[in-house]
Amino acid sequence: xxxxGYLCPHACGKANCPMGSSWCTSTKSGxxxxxxxxxxxxxxxxxxxxTEAWDNLYDERTSVERFFGDGKENYALNNLRVAGLKxxxxxxMDLACIAIIATRITKAEQSKKILQLSILIIKEQEMxxxxxxxx
Length: 135
Prior knowledge:
By secondary structure, the chain is mainly alpha-helical. The chain is built from 3 helices and 2 strands, in the order βαβαα. It has helices at residues 9-12, 52-74, 86-134; strands spanning 4-7, 32-35. It is flat and about 65 Å long. The protein starts with a strand and ends with a helix.
């Protein structure tokens, strides 16, 4: 992977440097630092922070962490002890994941019904208001 180039924040208009960009370089674009991910992979990651790709990846990671946290809190997945049968763990985890997904589906259906009901109530209130206004 090619190195990433970072521009001077003062030259980009993102920061107001009291020294200006003349102290670090004489070019119009300001100082350009090039950094490779291999040099410091814990500090510089791909995708870069602040980009849309990084935001999407962050959202996916947090949703997975919420899923695992829910499994540990509500479905006893934090302390699995099965003597001698590795398959039993997998079966238990599969059943717990199915239970989590089933509860989320029912919650989504319930919220959809609540939304439809609230839309009906709003429409009824609008009709009552319009009838009252014509009287």
